Amino acid sequence: MNLLLLILIGGIAGWLAGEIKRGHGFGLVGNIVVGICGSFFGHFLLGLLGIYAGGILGNLIAATLGAIALLALIGLIKRA
User: Fold this and answer.
1) How many CA atoms lie within 13 A of 9 on its CB side?
2) Is residue 80 part of a domain?
3) In which band, very low, low, confident or very high, does the pLDDT at 23 lie, cut at 50, 70 and 90?
């Protein structure tokens, strides 16, 4: 997948993850950055499971799941 498209999808996923996890985000810009990192994280985790997202919708779902997981992980670290 094109890196620029992956970054764009990651940004959208970060915003979406921030909306899903209301009160646990980092503001709009922070959530977008977390989404971009979460996009790579989500694709990595799904790849380990042998699941490969295809198309824009599949990539958006993988990126959103990765961003939510990353937001949850960061939240756990912040509380510790």
Assistant:
1) 26
2) no
3) low
